[in-house]
Amino acid sequence: MKFKCKMTDSGSMRDFTNVATTVARMSKTCVIRLTQDSLYFNVADESTPMVWAKLDQNHFFMDYLVAGKSDEFNEIYMELVTAMLAKSVVSLKTAAKSVKIKLTNKQQPCLTFEIELSSISAESRLCIHDVPVTIIPQKKWSEYNEPSVEKYNISLEMPQFKHLKSVVERIKNMSPILIISANTNGVLAFKADTDTATITVHFPNLAVLQCASEDETISASIDIKKFHAFVAWEAVHPTTIRCNILNERVININLNLDDYLQIRYYIPAVAL
Predict the structure, then answer these.
(1) Architecture in CATH for domain 2-144
(2) Is domain 154-268 given the CATH code 3.70.10.10 in the classification?
(3) For tag attachment on the chain, is the N or C end more exposed, with fewer CB atoms within 10 Å?
């Protein structure tokens, strides 16, 4: 198996770093999937997929090469510790001229980052980070597929992150459960019940992108800590945010940065 690529664009290195550091806030480990077209980050929560991030290799990388174990299975899956990944890429946002990433074998498989640092002198400085990885065998690849969800009851745009963050910060200590609901009038509501009061915040005038029902209000009750963790994706500065609700089953939030970065965040509903 072989993998190597290179990044030289400062914007791409910044976006890659933002994804890697945000993933590190979600989980201690993640699975990276390498295909001919894309690089994926897969984060699970108690074996349930939580984050699925897709980076278009044509935008992010140059000299991109992935060679799996055969032509039929021409992909690579690897698991790594997210804190080590985040620490390895932190300089890409500020001090890097370029970075080469490759799969190496240094007593064990590693994802090696060779970072060329900016310098005021003519001499270049090279910083190397080795992140140990565990190669996942092909027979287990299906465990890391993106969830297949039936058609959502409603899909609508979401408010800006600054508004979401303000609301969630205020109510996350009031109740462990957040009830998210939406209707065909483009109203998204956040509701939290406490022993002494019920707090509801409405976000009106949102564009409804899809709806399977004409009059029904669709809702799901979720762990507020998981929604609060989602707010960390503000770091990638998405151009669009879309909320999909399958009634009392799952909240799925899709974030897109133009056409080259897609993030899908899943929060399963909890029984009340």
Answers:
(1) Box (3.70)
(2) yes
(3) C
